[in-house]
Amino acid sequence: MIAEQRSLTEGLKAQMKADFEKARLEENVECLTFDLETTLPLPRIPTNIVFYKRQLWVYNSEINSAKE
Predict the structure, then answer these.
(1) Can you tell which superkingdom this protein's organism belongs to (predicted)?
(2) Ramachandran region of residue 51, left (φ > 0), alpha (ψ -120 to 50) or beta?
């Protein structure tokens, strides 16, 4: 199962690399990636009971272009 997952991961990375290269070479092709970097619970309270009652989270995400 781990070997299958590694093979799939390698195949997807190779496809992404090919897509990035195509976006760099061709004017009419754009390749974007989305990255959810981290989530931060607010307010910052170290008590475990309060942790599960929080309603607000901050999402730090970014979108990258292969052309830049």
Answers:
(1) Eukaryota
(2) alpha
